[in-house]
Automatic annotation (TrEMBL):
InterPro entries: P-loop_NTPase, T4SS-coupling_protein, TraG/VirD4. Keywords: Cell membrane, Membrane, Transmembrane, Transmembrane helix. Its main location: membrane. The keyword Plastid does not apply. It is a multi-pass membrane protein. It is found in: Cell membrane. Belongs to the VirD4/TraG family. PANTHER family: CONJUGATIVE TRANSFER: DNA TRANSPORT (PTHR37937). It holds the Pfam family T4SS-DNA_transf. Coiled coil: none annotated. This is Probable TraG protein, N-terminal part. GO terms for cellular component: plasma membrane. The chain crosses the membrane at residues 20-44, 86-104.
Length: 477
């Protein structure tokens, strides 16, 4: 079985080089034979009897062997000259092969034992496609005349940059990329610097600029309600709600660790569906307000009785969405009441633990600032890659609020990546671009938002949807 080749591919010498020693030996034998022939001819003073001359006093190189068989010539003298010529032939060959043997043994070691990495030359850089002059900046290369040539990557592959703090990653990679990338972009902007320095220019290119800062108190941020992405009037409603519930109940991306986490997912799925079905503009803040309503203070099971007995979800859905199929509305109502019924049959203490877990995971949306900025949506995910013009969405999170807002950040990215990779179109058996615009996702300080499992799983196929990730991390730890 052939072992895989790792490292850089080195050009090997042509196999024809192995014939060089044989050619050298033949030429040296030819020269020594010529020497012996001329010495014998000189001994006989170039007598006409010798014959075989080519020109003047020059004879054919192998004539010495023919003269050795001539009984009329002095064999002893001829043999002595041939013996001398043999020494001239053998000793240099012994010396040459000794040198080749020594150098050959030294060269049998692994030439790439300590790695094959090296600085690329211009030909190799050009072959890699980094001199195209468009795309994302990945570095620079100094030409022979000391001028700097910027290296830019525009292929479908993703980019990972290691850049320690204060190493110039912002001015060297991030800003130049955002000022040159012509397509849509989603920028995770911790300090807000990228928005301040690049949004104006990108807007001048005709792009739609969206600034989403969940903790903004000035009213200048765009709003985003995660529940507005639930396609409540379609058969996808339950799946959309389940995805949101899973992310909320697993805020750190460590998995659903115990029974109460898993049970809270089912409870929250039904709660989210109830919220959106009864209120077109319902938000997660509305959900947490509903389950903490004083009406259920005496007996929390009254909440589920209210959902099952006193709420006509199908009627409300059909009033809000006239185009919705009655069958779809009926099935969705049945699903909502099923989730409520599951909670209604639980023991009081068990149910109390499930609800407490859900409320704990929704606590972020009890913050009036976050609740206000997630109460409605000024944009939707389809705007980013399928709008009339490319869009640039800046997600701004101050460093002081990263830990607190981490659940919302992870929820946002998880929902976004799932939505834009839902469909893939094909033409004659080959995949084609499913979206109008390509998308660059600039992830500076990627590790700060915790484990994002959807990113890990989707990297292999994201390029097929026209999505290019640009990860920037400080180290591998």
């Amino acid at each position: 079985m052939k072992m895989p080749q790792y490292g850089l591919n080195r050009k090997t010498k042509s196999s024809s080089y192995k014939y060089i020693p044989l050619i050298v030996v033949c030429l040296w034998f030819f020269a020594c034979s010529f020497y012996c022939t001329q010495q014998i001819a000189l001994l006989y003073n170039y007598h006409p009897y010798l014959g075989g001359h080519v020109y003047s006093n020059l004879y054919l190189p192998w004539s010495c062997f023919l003269w050795l068989q001539d009984p009329d010539l002095d064999h002893n003298s001829i043999i002595k000259i041939i013996d001398d010529g043999s020494l001239y032939f053998v000793f240099p060959l012994i010396l040459m092969f000794s040198v080749l043997l020594l150098t050959g043994r030294r060269g049998k070691g692994r030439g790439d034992l300590h790695g094959t990495a090296k600085w690329a030359n211009k030909k190799e850089i050009k072959k890699s496609g980094l001199l195209g002059g468009k795309g994302a900046y990945v570095g620079g290369w100094e030409d022979r005349d000391r001028s700097t040539i910027y290296l830019m990557h525009d292929g479908p592959e993703h980019i990972l940059a290691f850049a320690p703090t204060r190493s110039g990653k912002g001015v060297g990679l991030v800003l130049p990329t955002l000022l040159s990338w012509e397509h849509s972009a989603l920028i995770f902007d911790i300090k807000g610097e990228n928005y301040a320095l690049t949004s104006g220019y990108r807007k001048s290119l005709g792009q739609k600029i969206i600034r989403f800062e969940p903790n903004d108190t000035t009213g200048s941020t765009a709003k985003f309600n995660p529940l507005s992405e639930i396609r409540i009037n379609t058969i996808h409603a339950t799946a959309d709600a389940q995805n949101i519930a899973n992310m909320i109940c697993d805020p750190e991306g460590k998995g659903l660790r115990d029974y109460f986490d898993r049970a809270a997912v089912a409870f929250m799925t039904g709660l989210i569906l109830h919220t959106v079905a009864t209120n077109q503009d319902g938000s997660l803040a509305d959900s947490v307000a509903f389950i903490t309503d004083p009406r259920w203070a005496d007996d929390v099971k009254d909440l589920f009785s209210f959902i099952i007995d006193e709420t006509d979800h199908a009627k409300k859905l059909l009033e809000t969405y006239p185009e919705m199929a009655e069958d779809t509305a009926g099935k969705l109502e049945k699903s909502i009441k099923s989730y409520a019924g599951e909670c209604l049959i639980k023991a009081s203490k068990e149910l109390s633990g499930v609800i407490s877990t859900a409320i704990s995971n929704l606590s972020l949306f009890r913050d009036v600032i976050v609740a206000g900025n997630t109460s409605s949506s000024d944009f939707c995910f389809d705007d980013i890659m399928d709008g009339e013009t490319p869009s640039s969405l800046y997600l701004i999170i101050p460093p002081s609020d990263i830990d607190r807002l981490q659940p919302l950040i992870r929820l946002f990215f998880n929902m976004f990546l799932r939505r834009i990779t839902e469909r893939m179109e094909f033409d004659q058996g080959r995949s084609i671009d499913s979206h109008k615009h390509r998308l660059l996702i600039m992830f500076d300080e990627f590790t700060s938002i915790g484990k994002l499992e959807i990113t890990q799983k989707s990297l292999a196929y994201m390029a097929g949807y026209g999505i290019k990730f640009y990860f920037i991390v400080q180290d591998i730890k």
